[in-house]
Amino acid sequence: MERQISKHNAEKILKECYLKAEETLKDEYKLESLFQGLEKKFGSLPVAGNVVRYIPLMASMVDLYAKKVYTEAPVGTILSIVSALVYIASPKELVPHFIPGIGKIDDVTVLVACLALVASDLDEYSKWREANGYLIDDLPEELTESERAEFFKRMMSAAKSQNE
Q1: pLDDT one-digit tens code per residue, 68-101
Q2: Do residues 106 and 94 touch, judged by C-beta distance below 8 A?
Q3: pLDDT tens figures, 108-129
Q4: What CA–CA distance (Å, rounded) separates 111 from 114?
């Protein structure tokens, strides 16, 4: 028997995850654990079209928001993104992953519902990131990897100081 999750139920799930999302945003370890959990979970997914490509952008936006580097996003946008990511990383699912073919459909549905809510804010963040030099590929190529990392940390520190 195939169970599907409606858009209404997906949005309800996002709202139910807000408290855990708030806790995750306040704890760097929880945030990093969330990202690594997502890496593992999505590493096993077959290509899911345009939906999966937004996950790293979402994670980047949340990370820079949590570090007070990018503060232009509405809190509701950040909570929606973290709520979706918390649900996806959670072992509790509406449709168990071991069911072939449909086991991850609830994850994709929650992600699509979230994207519908935050798409314009993700576009603004993407433009901001490019305009402000936060694309790793745009860092000076002549630097070693550790120098690039240090350069990026200094940029983030300067941006954080500006936003405080």
Answers
A1: 889 999 999 999 999 998 888 776 665 565 556 5
A2: yes
A3: 888 889 999 999 999 998 899 7
A4: 5
Domain boundaries, the chain: 7-119, 133-164
Give the side-chain half-sphere CA count within 13 A for 3. Answer: 12
Cα gap 97→106, rounded to integer Å: 9
From 96, 69, 78, 86, select the one nearest 164 (Cα to Cα).
Answer: 69
DSSP 133: T
Specify the pLDDT at position 136.
Answer: 62
Residue with tokens 């370890």: 29
H-run or E-run covering 122: helix 105-131
- Position 39, amino acid: E
